């Protein structure tokens, strides 16, 4: 992480508790450039973790650094960090443009007007920008708050449930924006309990369950690590039924189902199965048309992790 | 398993409820009961009970003191009509400033009014139900200590004649307590309903009662000159118009109350003026409440 | 130590909302009552001191300062929008100082200046000037206390109300020692210095008032800066 120290977030053994409730339990992770998704059910500690990273909460134990130094009680960190909290708080009596321009001025930007225009353009709020925030819908309010968090072009952007209240078109635009920002080398961290959102945008995911970090990394890789569950593949071939009867004899296969769309194969061992099927198909003289993992979406990862 | 684009809705045996339903009266009754419980913090955490229970205990203190004194062979130490004026003023100000926002500001803040009005509840029913609840709560805070005073005195007197005597004195006191509650609770609820933020609503209610009370006191002193007892004069009567507490006190004196109060006896003329102003205040507050809730979803 | 952007937002919030009525009406009452009394010449010759002192100085001024002082920062802390100020490199002491300055300025306009006007209307020029001076000092100290309270608790207005009504209203009149910790008496001490012999009954001497007032102001503002620097956003749990 040396080349990107300025925008990486490091947590080492971080725990946070309040009274009897342990919100974050011994979390160690490093977040680098790109888009990272914080996934987990409600109450898993995602908001707490984001507030810890944003310097609005002190860890009860452990170390947390942003760009090499702790974020707690260090207002300077905000010149390279932007935070979009959950909820809709904003100043209802200001117009959208005034709100973002105020943020630009507070960040001591040399050209607040230009930065404001750019930020508002990024979130596609140019039309309503001269209306009062009290007249905005929930999704519009969310977007103007993202604009205010982006106005100073931060290297690190933290967003807490950013897609809340957005309609599908706004959500796609926001996802697109986050992907672009991630590709440009910034560190983007956002939280969600909706699997599709995280799967579509994030390159890395951190799964939190009950305050603990349950899994991190690329979600396909995580899935592969869960060898205790059978992998499900969809296979289409020239002769499904014959392939099915051949597969059922293999030890790496736990079950085969004939469906109208092909074979659904439950494989106990991903690696062994992948090797097996190629050889098997050739030996039987069956042409393989399609071999797809059926449940590699985040949903199954999440469901398995949570269920365990 | 051809891709058939038809769908079926299965009959799971669910049936709509076609039996009798509670009507508007029951809804209003329930809302009133719930609001009355909220006014004392019942059904919420312990912190919500601190102020109402604390004020109630404060209001009972004179009755407790009376019990001690009567037990030592004394006579009743506090009158039934004024009870203890200062304790009542301070107690009701704090109670209403803390609890009126509990009844109305919370619903405004969290914008749950559309949920209420999606029931067989007319727009005017909501504030009136809340008002009845707050008046009842104020009545409990004002009159239950009177009853305690009565009971603690009764045990010390002898003979049915003395008991009857106490009872005759008690009843107008209870009615006067009811008047206090009606006037003060109505004004407090109307003030509180203007803000969804509890702190602002509490500030408005406490500020209004406290400000007008001190002003009335100062004007009263100014009217009669320094160091003199309260004497009758036009200026002193005008001073009494400023605060609901003094208006109530004046009406009491005009109706024959014997305890000297904060204001001089207004007599018949000024007394009816005081009473009229009380009626106007209550009517205006009720009108403000009903108007405020006419448009649902007003935040 | 002063940020114009924060100041303009705070000023707009303070003046543009319905709650501005709460602090606009009492000074009008004060001036109106003074005018009426001037016209009707009441029996008590010391009436200006009572109206301007007991009512204006000890009730209108603290209540106005309370509502203004607790809402300049308290409203934003309450609904979470203070994050927009805190997630910037602006030093916390600048945020507190700016909010404090705006609150004091608004309090002066809505409570101290009306004291002067009411005093002039009552025909007491010297007393009016004295009370203005006292009100200026008291406005400063009150707002420092209330801004600090709003960083310390979410029930800042109730706590401040308890201080004004119970501590200053009741105790300070009954218990002589309590006057040493009563902001209204600091103000009255300054007022008496400017307008002596007006029966204002300040319970504290001028030097004591000056020192204590400065200590209270500096102490509460420093505490507010410290607390704002440790501002905590709790997540799903609390």
Account of the 3D structure:
The complex is a heterotrimer of chains A (308), B (299) and C (238). Chain A has 308 residues and is α/β, with parallel strands linked by helices. Chain A has helices spanning 46-53, 96-106, 112-122, 138-150, 168-183, 195-201, 219-225, 240-247, 270-284, 298-307; strands at 9-18, 21-31, 34-39, 61-66, 81-84, 156-160, 187-192, 204-209, 212-217, 231-237, 253-259, 262-267, 288-293. In chain A, the strands form three sheets. In chain A, strands 5-6-7-3-8-9 form a six-stranded mixed sheet, sandwiched between helices. Chain A has a four-stranded antiparallel sheet with strand order 11-12-10-13, with helices on one face. In chain A, strand 1 and strand 2 (21-31) form a beta hairpin. Chain A is elongated, with a radius of gyration of 23 Å. The mean pLDDT of chain A is 86. With 299 residues, chain B is mainly α. Chain B has helices at 24-39, 50-71, 85-109, 113-117, 125-154, 160-192, 198-224, 234-240, 244-254, 267-292. The termini of chain B are far apart. In chain B, 42% of the residues are buried. Chain C is an all-alpha fold. The mean pLDDT of chain C is 87. The chains are: A alpha/beta (308), B mainly alpha (299), C mainly alpha (238).
Short synopsis of the structure:
The complex is a heterotrimer of chains A (308), B (299) and C (238). With 299 residues, chain B is an all-alpha fold.
Write the topology of this structure.
The complex is a heterotrimer of chains A (about 300), B (about 300) and C (about 240).
Chain A: E1 9-18, E2 21-31, E3 34-39, H1 46-53, E4 61-66, E5 81-84, H2 96-106, H3 112-122, H4 138-150, E6 156-160, H5 168-183, E7 187-192, H6 195-201, E8 204-209, E9 212-217, H7 219-225, E10 231-237, H8 240-247, E11 253-259, E12 262-267, H9 270-284, E13 288-293, H10 298-307
Parallel strand pairs in A: 3-7, 3-8, 5-6, 6-7
Antiparallel strand pairs in A: 1-2, 1-4, 8-9, 10-12, 10-13, 11-12
Chain B: H1 24-39, H2 50-71, H3 85-109, H4 113-117, H5 125-154, H6 160-192, H7 198-224, H8 234-240, H9 244-254, H10 267-292
Helix pairs in contact in B: 1-5, 2-3, 2-5, 3-5, 3-6, 3-7, 5-6, 6-7, 6-9, 6-10, 7-8, 9-10
Chain C: H1 4-16, H2 20-40, H3 47-79, H4 83-86, H5 92-121, H6 125-152, H7 156-174, H8 183-194, H9 206-229
